[in-house]
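pinned: reference chain
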Amino acid sequence: MNNPTHNQLIHRFRHFLFVYKKEQLVGYLYFEKGQHQFAYSSHYLSQKEPKPVSLDLPLTERFIVSERMFNVFEQVIPEGQDRKLLEKKAGSANDFDLLPLLKDIYGDLQFSKTALQFDEKADSFTYANVKAEILGENDFPNVLDMALDIEEKTLFPPNNNQLKNFRPSGLSGFQHKLSVVMNDNTIRQPNKNEESLCPRHHYFIKPYHPG
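pinned: its structure tokens
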């Protein structure tokens, strides 16, 4: 099958995800009967200079099929305790079911069960943009003289993987991570009005418990 339109996907597949890169629809991800399929959108391919999402997803008008989740998508799923919390929230251990629950994906990918609308185009954002703000005149690492306004149970989730306000971050690794905002000399989690800005205006922390 050649690259699909939105309506063709609705008629052919019951479940699929919209895949965005830099807040632009690039394609669709589908999973059924142990196989993952990805297809670029016809609109994206028709652009002047479209770029592949990754090396294992070359530009093509046909479906790309894999038994395993594509590496470029798998690597944004957290591991360890955060994955267990995410699986609990999703009611599934399948990578496909976890992707649309990721709220703060560090990178430029987004996954959604429905089409998304963006108010403004995303700007590129790297560590170099905020390095001076974080380090000041210090060499890395730097101890920030800021208050921490985050509940202890959020910083250090219980072993039963029950955390009501868990915001799964799209950042791989086994350590527990949180998206945070640094504002008014305080480190805190983003409020509902700020959630739409993720991840461009947020930082993340890895809580450390010496005990």
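why pinned: Residues 127-205 form one domain. The chain has seven helices and eleven strands.
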